[in-house]
Amino acid sequence: MRSKRVFPGLLRPGFFWFSIIFCFLSTFQTTHFSTVVLNKVETKHFEILFTKESEHAAVELYEKAEEIYSKVSTFLGYEIRERIKVYVVEDHDYVNAYADPVFNSIVIYPNTPSSAVHLVLPNFESWMEFVFTHELIHVFIGNRLAWYFQPFSVLGKPVPKALQALFIPMYVHEGVAVYGETVLSNSGRLRYPYFLSLQETAHDGLGYAGGANTRHQSLGGMAYVQGSSFLYFLSEEYGEETMLEIVKRFLDNPVLGLAHAISNVLGNPDEVLFKWRDWIKKRYDRRFQELSDDESDPEGWMVKPMPEGGITYVDLKGIHVKSKSIPVVGLVDYSISKRGELAIVKYVQQDAHVWNFLIVEGKKIDEHVVDVAWKDEKHLWAIKQDGSGKRSLVEYIGSEEGFVQKELLPPFPDFEPLELAEGNPHYIVGRYRGQVDLFHYDPVQRVILKLTNSEEVEENPSFSKDFGGVCFLTFASSGTSIWLLQREPGGYSIRKLFTTTLALADPVVEDGKLFFSYVSKDGRRRVRWHTFKESNLETSKILRPKTGTLSLSEKGSKGFNSSERVFNFPAPRFWLPVLLPEREGITLGVALGLVDDYNMSFAIPMITNAGIHCLFGYLKNPQILLWLGPKPWLNAQWRLSDVSSLTGDGVTLSASYNKGLNIGLSYSLGRETTRYLSSPKVNLRADINSLELTFYHRFGNSIMWIGTTSHEDSILRSGIRVPLTLLDLHTKFGYAFIDWIDLSSGLKLGNSGSYEFRLSVLIHGGIHYFFNFTLEAGVLFNENGGKPFWKIGNGAV
Fold first, then answer.
1. Cβ proximity of 578 and 593 under 8 Å
2. What percent of the chain has pLDDT over 90?
3. Predicted structure pTM score
4. Strand order across the 415-420 sheet
5. Percent of the chain clearing pLDDT 70 (strictly above)
6. Which helix (H) or strand (E) holds 614?
7. pLDDT at 548 over 60
8. Does an H or E element contain 305, and which?
């Protein structure tokens, strides 16, 4: 009788070494990059886990968490039974947080957003409090289960939530969260003209807003814009209580769709949709009533004054400096000196993390920088942010040997620098005790003057050498205003230059013209200039700021008196019956799910009468999937970036095992970017079996490619990828979406004179945001004739 292996395939030739490599990479990743050892404190409803670097932010959350829970619970009208895990970690420099309702967890990177990103008005008292409110609403939505999913909890608490999540469109999730963040705080996107303009210019179909892959310069996708627009309309037209009743009825029976919930509460959903479109149209007409033709204005944003006159701005091609365009991927901020030196802050991925790197003329200078401005040819000022979100002001002094860093202003609990004025960084937009104003800082005297004192939010300062003053903008319910502040004997004068209903940003006064970017009628950001005469401006108002330093608290970082040290490893979360193919046929087994919801790693052992099989995964960088069972296989990728590259050049190492070993290397050069899609300019891939070269080119909002490979026969491939964001391809009030389509062809020539020509169409879409799929269909021609083919994929392309 033949004995059965407990781990079939584990010790087969070649695979043993890949198992060793996998263990090494996992250990290396865990030891050096992943957060495994954490500190933990608890409240009634939360476990707060944090790194030592982010302890200050964790204390802030600890003090507010239960109060925020009470607000959200009262707002939605129900509670959550399970305790929620919240990770506060210094894992990335970019502004982000995310919730995983399936595993009842929230991850927060305590980084205050830059105003250049145009995410939200910065008048919140605490970014931690604001972003936690948004993410907690997601967890609440995911925990309200329909009765027919609740019995699946016998398989583990995540199982019924995962099943229900398949039927909840992203626009419901993000719509409720954006609405809630606004009504439960002093800030929120529904108070921000920039975000509201995107609502008013966006396509009015809800279905294509269901995908996380669609982009419309909307900071997260159309789900945020369309979902909040529809729920905002319901609240304005029928009342907040009615809107929330529709949401809760939908969550109680999501399989029937949102339209069914609307019909139960309001009647015919088609009439509701018609009223929503009419509501959008009226808001659109009010917003753009004073705007004439805008198609002649160039697309662009991040407008800045040039030291020698004129302006520079950014578009999809890069930074426009005079007659040339400098391509940059992951741009956060930039500044140009009188000598033409370009300082750039950009995102750079390093293993499982993304950091903000300061790069000057192609050389890395520092990390964790969020804003930058040249003071003169040798002195570069910058705002830095640490792992707890605390900000400091620093100066980099240039010489032939490089740059020397000097701290100008240390972090203070009650003052936070937000933006430096391009052209004169002594002028700073900052938050002082919860209020955003314009300040002037003298590092020699160490004096901070508060120049404005308004409940309106100041943003985007730039220095005008023509007027010797600072130009900035403010937001109000009536519109956006641009102001000019100038130093006068005994104080400062302030004058309003321009007021409009448009959503403006980046005002610059140069050569008697007022330049700015704005959201146009088609939802794009464009650059326009407005001529004005100084004699036509309103009379100056004299400001006399109080001299002396602001009353700044110099208390040290907050900390816990005691906290528990915990190891963050995959923990048992669910079990499922499974059917596995064995040599003797299909066998029944049981799968146990061990999941680490922060480090994105899992192990799923499957026990059958043939032995124990297991699927391992680590989904950060390097990304590894390993199957130990019948027909074992391994897929691994490690993405490496060139930190000094402005265009995102990088190398990807890959390894796979499936009946044989294959090791590959892929090098990407440059970047082609449209409003919806992106790709490298050139991609070269080499592995044991072949060499592949592909060229990409932007064509409008689409991307074309042509390439060749040495695999087996000579092959020529070409195609075009077209976004479907502007098409209404969706299930009505549903949860499926289609976001782009590939039209491609390929030619294969054999050594014996044989050939193969292939024409195909590939559609990419999804159900919810984590079940992406591809559907490919086409015709294959060869010397024997033609035949159709089709296949379904998992969405990875």
1. no
2. 39
3. 0.88
4. 415-420, 427-432, 435-442, 447-450
5. 85
6. strand 611-618
7. no
8. strand 301-305
